[in-house]
Amino acid sequence: MQIQVSHLRTGSKEIEYTLSLIECPRIKKPIIFNSEGMKCYCKVKDQGSGIFVTGNFSVFVKTECDRCIKEIHFEVSGELDLTLMPEEEMKESDTDVEISLNDSDIDYYSKGTIDLNKIFEDQFLLEYPLSAVCSENCKGLCSECGMDLNQTVCECSKKPANNVFSVLKKLQE
Ligand SMILES: [Zn+2]
Ligand SMILES: [Zn+2]
User: Fold this and answer.
1) DSSP one-letter code for 141
2) Centroid of ligand 2 to alpha carbon of 67 (angstroms)
3) Exposure b/e, 92-114, CB count within 10 A at least 16 = b
4) N or C: where does the chain have the smaller number of CB atoms within 10 Å of the terminal CB?
5) Which residues have C-beta under 5 Å from ligand 2, the single-atom ion?
6) Distance 140 CA to ligand 2 centre (A)
């Protein structure tokens, strides 16, 4: 979804659409959107000093637990509050541009076109958890035998201890 800045002169524009995973090249496997895709809503307004974009998004994702690779599902959602400045203008005037508009984040657009897909993809990546786990207490997989330590206690952690005992036993003999 792209917006031509020249079409905004008449005021604000409200946009509601669905973003599919294919349109988000930076969101990588194993993350998958559910079939409904990412629901995006935004209001775009040209304020002369910049273009304000406010809105929100939400999407249900399927991925793997970072520790035990079990399939997990959760919602990723967030709010948008951005001020977009033309990239070309920023380069020309460099440091002279005064950015004291409000507390919103600053982003850029180029060639008079706002790329909403990129904006929503950025916001998704910002909101996505650094570590996606099935549970905070997930014990993960054994690094030796690959067994799921949430379900079983494997013998790997016991072995070294056994060996020490057997060595001691031998020494005692
Ligand atoms: Zn897990
Ligand atoms: Zn093991």
Assistant:
1) B
2) 14
3) eeeeeeeeeeeeeeebebeeeeb
4) C
5) 142, 144-145, 154, 156
6) 11
pLDDT band of 37, cuts 50, 70, 90: very high
**Beta strand pairing status for 2-4 and 105-109?**
unpaired
Cα(169)–Cα(115) distance, integer angstroms: 71
| Residue 155 forms part of a structural domain | no
Ligand positioned closest to the Cα atom of 72 = 1
Domain total in the chain:
1
Section 75-100 average pLDDT: 76
Output the CA 136–ligand 2 centroid distance in Å.
Answer: 21
Q: Is residue 165 part of a domain?
A: no
Q: Which two tokens stand for residue 59?
A: 């999407």
Ligand 2 centroid to residue 50 C-alpha, Å: 57
Report the range of poorest mean pLDDT among 79-83, 99-103, 123-127, 150-154.
99-103
What is the structure's pLDDT at 9? 73
Residue 51: inside a domain: yes
**Distance in Å, CA 117 to ligand 1 centroid:** 31
Answer with the residue of higher pLDDT: 69 or 170: 69
Starting from the CA of residue 136, give the closest ligand: 1
